Amino acid sequence: MIYLDNSSTTQPDNAVLESFIAANLEYYANPASLHRMGRETDVLLRRAKEQMLQLVNNREGEVVITSGGTESNNLALIGFAMAYRSRGNHVITTKIEHPSVLLACKHLETLGFEVDYLSVDEQGIISIEELDEKLRKDTILVSIMHVNNELGSIQPLAACAELIHKKSRAVFHSDCVQSIGKLPVNMQHLGVDAITVSAHKLNGLKNTGALFLKKGIKPQAIMHGGGQENGLRSGTVSVPNAVALAKALRLSVVEKERADYRTWRNRVLETCTKYENIQVLCPKNSAPHIVSLAFRGIKGEVAVNYFQENGLIVSTSSACSSKNGQAGHVIEAIGLHNRFKNGVVRISFGNTTTDEHIEQLVSVIERFIDVIEKGM
Ligand SMILES: Cc1ncc(COP(=O)(O)O)c(C=O)c1O
């Protein structure tokens, strides 16, 4: 089977697994313990964190180890809103965020916060003008994802940051789960105050993530207990998981966009633009590792099954919204035509992808179109 569902999750890298096992065998003591083994484990944790901070160009800042992207997003959204509520109660996000941001925002609404959801164009991109209109004196938090997990659309974070910091005192958070490792994620260049990452999208381990914070930016904790992670995330820190995350980041972080992914993406685009029965979602300004295709008059799961029978693992728009077979909130937000909107398939490349896989993919797409044209 050829695995082309890397935006759902990736195969852990051997080097990551090795560092996880090595750390577990030797550094299993609690890093909060005062004895020598505890202190040595704490030194390892600090080293892993320094490395991670350097990789995102946030040396002066802090990184909180979490159980993944979902927890990091919840800590950012709920934690910042609670921490800064004396300044105001207005939050801005977008209509196409991952549910871990959107539902955290819905929760904030129940607590009395006012949330504005920015719309996106047909390319899945927000408008700076709308952000400008929505920013207010009492805006305390703006959360805009870097790369959308269903479309691959890339948001103009640096331009957003400039505007947000000029017009307000809001904290600017970005969910970078789908961008880091594929596009440069440099916190200084992007102008963001906090970013979310998740290890399992980077050939790391599931249930590990991080929230990177610029110096002086602190959310209120949402997990209460022993006060670990400078009081920001209670619970014994798994140093092996942190070490494995640092390793996965070190192996994946890029200074330039990955050219091989872009070449593969273009190859698929060239193939698909020949056919009327396929619409490529967000062909412009999209991350190189995600290609979402909409098949006219076909259900996404039918396409996914056809691809699977032909040796390829792909997904419907996102693993989270794929179970109910309905067009998800992202597909609705870009206003995809009714004839296409239930037939979205997401193909996502990763470290295990090769040129041969892409040739096989192209040939299966061509055969599938043939089948559709003949009326299945
Ligand atoms: C953009 C985005 N944010 C957050 C998450 C959640 O990450 P995790 O699975 O580590 O909780 C995902 C996972 O699909 C994602 O794609």
From TrEMBL:
Keyword tRNA processing: no
Claim: Metal-binding is one of the keywords in the record: no
InterPro entries: Aminotrans_V_dom, Cysteine_dSase, PyrdxlP-dep_Trfase, PyrdxlP-dep_Trfase_major, PyrdxlP-dep_Trfase_small
Residue span(s) of domain Aminotransferase class V: 2-361
Source organism superkingdom: Bacteria
Keywords from the named record: Pyridoxal phosphate
CC cofactor: pyridoxal 5'-phosphate
Pfam entry (one): Aminotran_5
Protein name: Cysteine desulfurase family protein
Organism from which the protein derives: Sporosarcina saromensis
Lineage: Bacteria, Bacillati, Bacillota, Bacilli, Bacillales
